[in-house]
């Protein structure tokens, strides 16, 4: 009798492991996808979603104050948003603890970009954020155009060109 239970127990364990693995291996958002989950929340607790910015090019970046490349990227994105005169909206989603986010939000009040917080890690999980900075460029139609992981000063011109191409698309 023990022999007949062993294969059944083994099969049950394999099924459990494969089901858990499948849940962890959700497909990462890619070009052409429509963001389905809020990126984060505002300081007031309101969700920040792509559909709020319909008709604009949306740049979403996940960042933290301890990330040197993130701190280089934010002012550049701020400049891009200002230069676009309302056609581009940047959402900077902080991934740190809520208390740290509140303190950073106070210090960054002068920034025109929208500072949000990924309070429950839902944005990071939904958009495959495993490292920062992690940026998505979303077209006026609400579809993801590009996903960038990491930061390089050499890549800034390419990102600007991608945003310009998104602005030029009808």
Task: Give an overview of the whole structure.
39% of the residues lie in helices and 19% in strands. The chain is α/β, with parallel strands linked by helices and 170 residues long. Strand 3, helix 2 and strand 4 form a beta-alpha-beta unit.
Distance separating the two termini: 69 Å
Q: What is the N-to-C succession of helices and strands?
A: HEEEHEHEHEEH
Low-confidence stretches: 1-23
Q: Major β-sheet, in short?
A: 5 strands, mixed
Give the tally of β-strands.
7
Question: Taking Cα atoms only, what radius of gyration do you get, to the nearest Å?
Answer: 20 Å
Reading off the top of the CATH hierarchy, the class is best stated as Alpha Beta
Residue-averaged pLDDT:
83
Q: In percent terms, what proportion of residues is strand? A: 15-25%
CATH topology: Glutaredoxin
Q: Assembly type of the shown chains?
A: single chain
Q: Which of globular, elongated, flat, extended, rod-shaped describes the shape?
A: globular
Strand order of the largest sheet: 5-4-3-6-7
CATH superfamily: Glutaredoxin
What's the CATH architecture? Answer: 3-Layer(aba) Sandwich
The computed structural class is alpha/beta
When the domains are counted, the total is: 1
What is the count of DSSP helices, taking H or I runs of 4+ residues? 5
Share of helix, binned: 25-40%
Write the layout of secondary structure elements.
Blueprint: H1 2-24, E1 40-41, E2 47-48, E3 57-63, H2 68-83, E4 88-94, H3 98-107, E5 114-117, H4 122-126, E6 134-138, E7 144-149, H5 156-168
Parallel strand pairs: 3-4, 4-5
Antiparallel strand pairs: 1-2, 3-6, 6-7
């Amino acid at each position: 009798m023990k022999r007949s239970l062993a294969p059944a127990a083994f099969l049950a364990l394999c099924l459990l492991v494969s089901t858990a693995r499948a849940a962890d291996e959700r497909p990462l958002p890619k070009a052409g996808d429509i963001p389905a989950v809020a990126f984060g929340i505002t300081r007031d607790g309101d969700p920040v979603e792509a559909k709020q910015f319909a008709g604009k090019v949306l740049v979403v970046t996940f960042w933290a104050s301890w990330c040197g490349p993130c701190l280089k990227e934010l002012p550049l994105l701020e400049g891009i948003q200002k230069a676009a005169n309302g056609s581009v909206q940047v959402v900077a989603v902080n991934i740190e603890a809520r208390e740290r986010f509140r303190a950073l939000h106070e210090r960054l009040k002068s920034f025109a970009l929208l500072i949000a917080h990924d309070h429950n890690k839902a944005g990071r999980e939904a958009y495959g954020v495993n490292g920062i900075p992690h940026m998505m460029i979303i077209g006026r139609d609400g579809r993801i155009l590009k996903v960038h992981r990491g930061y390089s000063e050499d890549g800034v011109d390419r990102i600007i060109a991608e945003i310009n191409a998104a602005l030029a698309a009808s």
